[in-house]
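Run folding on both entries below.
>entry_1
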Amino acid sequence: MSSKMPDPSEDVEAAFGQSWRDHENRALLGHLRRQRPDGRAALPQAQEPAPVGEAAAATLGPTIEIYDAERLARRLGQGDGFVGDPAESGKGEDAGDARQIRLWTRMQGDERGPWRKLVIPDAVMIARIAGLDAICPHFSEVTAWIVRAAGLSAATGTPLRLDPAVVVGPPGTGKTFYARKLAEALGVPSEVIAMNLMTDRGSAFSGLTPVWRSSGPGKVAKLLIEGSHASPLIVIDEIEKASPINPSETPENVLHSLLERENAARFVDEFLDLPIRADHIFWFATANSLSPLSPSIVDRLIVFQVALKPDEMLAIQKSLFHEANLRVGQSFAEPGAALFKAIAGHNPRTLSRLWPIAMGFACEAGRRDLDIADIRQAEQVLIGGKEGARRPIGFITPKRKDEGERG
């Protein structure tokens, strides 16, 4: 009688998968905790008085100043500066000025001052990043690049720096999903900016000056000012699909500065009107094709090509199931191999929506396990309407091309 020796690689992969699921559980619990009406933790916790300024920076670990506090004070009329009374502001441009002054005042009153955290990976974080291979195996080249950069950062005790990158692949391959998981693994806030919705010169990045009625800071400044990190992850979704009304004022103009580290270190948001350090931001773009982009933008990006392989699909299917299951309190048993095989034709985007619908059908039937009927009904909800849209409706029968020509 022979027995099969255990494969150590299987244990490692299983450990990575379990570690990642544990991390997701902690992240979801934190998210649910923040949804409490009082905004506090579920159990009362004793808190020390919050440190201020440089003392606060010392408690945060490695930090940098993202703006000049003295310059901010001068903007508010302190020292040798001068600013008008916001109480005198009315409408239009004056209202924009008042909002600008309120933002400056909030920044000056922030107990953290201008200090924001930097990312210096440790062994746990590096293992979390490496664990992305278990849920997004088709991004292994991207993950390996980040793991190497994280290892260098950990070995030298210097902040993690990642050059701006773009992942190119067909629609529905999970590019944005991977970016979100990467932000979770790095432990940094993230923001997705959809380039296909951008019709101006890039105010989502650079903000709008107070002369405009809808003026306000851009997402870059807001992430840095309101967030805890100097290194948030900003995802530029479908970077090649900007459609500005005025072709001479495209978002690419502001990206030329933000994606160049030397210029990003002195980035000026149009509303904030203060130099701010944006050179530690992690930029992660997605694209279906690079051909519409100007060579000067592509030159600023590390390019990765991704495509789904059949032998990688099972890991992705399971990852998306576990994420959907996590959002409903892990109420469902993991499906068997036959069910995963039945959905092999769907891309990750479709699967991320298919699982919750199928769970709804199973719940309606009083079950906590999914079967093929749940999947087929979910497919009908998700895809059936699209197929029906291709068929003629009503009582008019369309003519064939040859019939139209006879008339």
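>entry_2
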Amino acid sequence: MTEQHETPGGVSGRALQKDIPQATVARLATYLRVLAVLADEGTAIVSSEELAVAAGVGSAKLRKDLSFLGPNGVRGVGYDVIKLRDRIEDVLGLSEGHRVVLVGAGNLGRALVGYGGFRRRGFCMVGLFDSDPQVIGTSVGDLRVRDVAELTDAVRTLEPTIAVITVPDAAAQGVCDLLVAAGMQSILSFSPLALDAPATVEVRRVDLAVEMQLLSFELARSAELEAADREVAAGETVGADPVRAAAEAARAVRPVTPIQTSHAAMEPTKGSVVTP
């Protein structure tokens, strides 16, 4: 018997992207990564429980997320790995792939251009730009660094769908303005600064410092709880009930769910800049 995963409102079949919550979209990207690995390993069928564990989510949440895709899976059997991967790629707009231009040929920009994982996931780097005369004309992989002054003409000829900004903070807004003027509607910025863009342009921001601050908080919280546990153990030894009570109280206020990382927490609106 086929499981009928229906979209909210009882609409089955092709999912409407506008109806899918941003948090679900972020998790779909995670499921896609897991499915790609399974496909490479030759796995044909995966159960919802197995996929949920690999993606780090609950099986109920996974099934709800996949319900936005229309009918999927066979009860008691599982999901066809290839078909589900292709379905998610279609919903995420990856079926035809994306052409990417990157502005800023410094260390970060060069590292991103050299990362082979982008191409495997449907993102092809087609242009690299910089304003430094000593960098212009050099090669990074298969790309030659071009003068940022050529950006507008290059966007017309290269027809990119996504632009990436990896320039110093002081230059980020100017580069964003150039990209918007050239017609780009999807921009990913590695500058921590909030960039101004029209409502028709989607700007997402990756702030690595914020991610490390979240990790720092988790480390501090874990250390605090470990100290409380040690106090509990000491209290049990000497019969110090107040110490035990304090430690138990510390654990009681601990949040039930961990802090969401950027792939699940960013829910941008048009023209907004979102900090992971």
